[in-house]
Structure formats: C-alpha cells, structure tokens
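During the second year of the project, the team shifted from modelling isolated chains to modelling whole assemblies. The rationale, set out in the original proposal, was that interfaces cannot be judged from single-chain predictions alone. As a representative example for this report, we include one of the complexes processed in the last quarter. Its constituent sequences, exactly as entered into the pipeline, are reproduced here:
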Amino acid sequence: MEVKSILRQSLPLLILCGIGEIVAGSVFGWMADFLELLPGLIVLIPAIMGLKGNIDVTLGSRLGSAAHMGLIAPGNIWNQETKQNIIASISIGVIMAIIAGILAYITCWLLGLPKLEVYELIGIALIAGTMAGVILAFLTIGIMIIAFKRGLDPDNITAPSLATVGDIITLGCIFLTAFIFIEVI
Amino acid sequence: MAVYSAPKIIKESIPLLTICIGVEVLIGQVLNTQQSYMTIPIILALIPVINGVGGNIGSILGARLASGLHTGIIQLDFKDPELRKNMSSAFILGVMTFTVLGALVYVILPLVGIDLSVIGFGRLMAIVLGAGILLVLALICLSVISAFYSFKKGMDPDNSVTPIITTSGDALGILCLFLMVAMIGVT
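Output from the structure prediction step:
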C-alpha cells in the first residue's frame, strides 16, 4: 500500500476524531459536580474508558487482519471467525469490568479517598462496560461493512473511529449508569 | 474450525489489559497531584487531543503491521521496505494531523470559553506540534517493537499492540505536553 493512500484514508478521519476529542475534553470538564455524588467514580472512569478503547480497537484490529487474510469478506461477514472475535470481545469486557471495579476500590482505599462499596463500583463498571461493549462490538462490524463497501483498508479507519466514538459512547453509558445508581440509591 | 478462538483471544488479552488499567489509574492519580498544571484549562483541553490522536496513529500503525505480519507482506526485519513505508506514513500522518488540530484548537477553545490571548497562536502551535511529534516518534518505535516482539513470541500483535500503544501513549503524551509547556510556557 502506498504512503499516499494511507494518508488519504486516515487523515480526514483523524482530524474529525481530534475535533471529537476537543469537544469530549470540554464536556468532561462540565461534569465535575456530578462526580461528587458517586465517590470512586472519578477513579473508575479513566479505567473503563481506557479499557473500552483497548478492547474494541483490538477487535477492529483483529477483524482487519482477518479481512487481509481472506477469513472474512463482504459476503460472509457474519461467519464463525467474526462470531469468535465478538464473543471474545464481549467476554473480555465483562471480566475486565469486574477487575476495574475492584481496582478502583483498592486505589481509593490506598489513597484514603471516599468511595462507594466495592459491589457498587463493580456494578457500575459491569453495567456501563457491558452496555458500551455490546454497542461498540456491533459498531465495529458496521465500520467493517462500510470499509468493504468503499474499498478502504479497515486498518486505516477502525482504530481512530472506534477510539473516538468509543470514548463518547462509553462516557454516555457511564453517566447513564451513574444516573440510574443515584436514582436507585 | 475457525482460525480465531474466543478462549485464546481472552487468555492473551486479560493479563495485558489488567496491567494497562492499573497504569491508567496510576496516571490519573499522578495527574491529580499536579495541581499547578492541572488547573490550567488549556492543558486540560490539550491532554485528550494529544493522547487521543497519538494513540490513534500508533494504533493504526499497529493494526497495519499486524495485518502485514499475518499476511507475510511485512517481514520481521527492521530494514523491510514495507515496514519503512508504514513508519514514514505514520510520521507524516502525525505531522499533518497535529498541524491541522493545532489550528483548530486555536479556533474552538475560545468558543467554549477558554482564553488563548495570553499564549497566542505561535506558542500554541509550537506546543501542540512539539508534543505531538515527540509523542508520534516514540509511539512509532514502540509500535514496531511490540508488534515484532509479540509476533516472534507467537502472540497475535492485534491483541497486544493497541493496549500497549494507547496506555503508554497516555503516559508519554502527558509527559511530552508538560515538557513543551515547561519549555515554551503558557503564561
């Protein structure tokens, strides 16, 4: 693949994603008051966000390799290879949410920060993480289909689009979950 | 029998991802202690941009290297011409993206109420470009090393490069940004 076509496929999307990050950064600043109601969430958020990005970008990355190896193609995108990858991605999300909840609890405890109960932190991570994970897994497939249709290399577009859209969807899921928790508790 | 197996992917991913969230949480806590820097709105606004775009460029390169290694188009050799081409694309991509984003930051931040009149266009561009280019250079090297190392060890680079790049990108991005801010100044 030529340098020029890599640039042409990735640059517009990267700039769009950069704008998304500028907006996300500004919006995040406004949510500070909300975080005080659920102590420990401030530690959990970067953990869940980092995690979702990693899990879904690696899914996109594997599917990109699978496409290059001829294991998935436009006609048979819903085959066993794709299913194994999606099952793995969603399972990793569930396992890692539990680990993230425990880790956030331990971090707060070590630093003497106020915190929710450990099962509450795990609960928030599980609900928000699984919700975001399922949405993003299907979004990944959608991006693959678009890449196939337009003749783009999935490797050039899955990482930036999933990372940015992933941040926004994950933040949305965390705040939706936090909102439900505040209403219930 | 599918080439990909969910249990194998899960087994390869969990340990590395656990380390990554540990590091992410640690970075968050270190940032919380940097009150002198973390109360400057321009720095807060630039962190996600630098880290996010740096991570994206490193991850694109990682995904491309993984596909290249899987299909045999890229050989495990630092002198491989296809590898060189991918590395230089990532660098050019970084320079172009950060140039455009530096200008966009200058336009967008005042719209959300962040004053940039003190720092000015020249110093803002110098900080964004300087930090961005430093970060991209570091992540290109890390991406190649981690892709080659995983492939050599029989791991799927698709599972390892992205977490390594985004996590070290978050740590190195903040480091590059603070370095440029310290050198150039924002006040």
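The CA atoms of residues 53 and 99 of chain A lie 16 Å apart. The radius of gyration of chain A is 18 Å.
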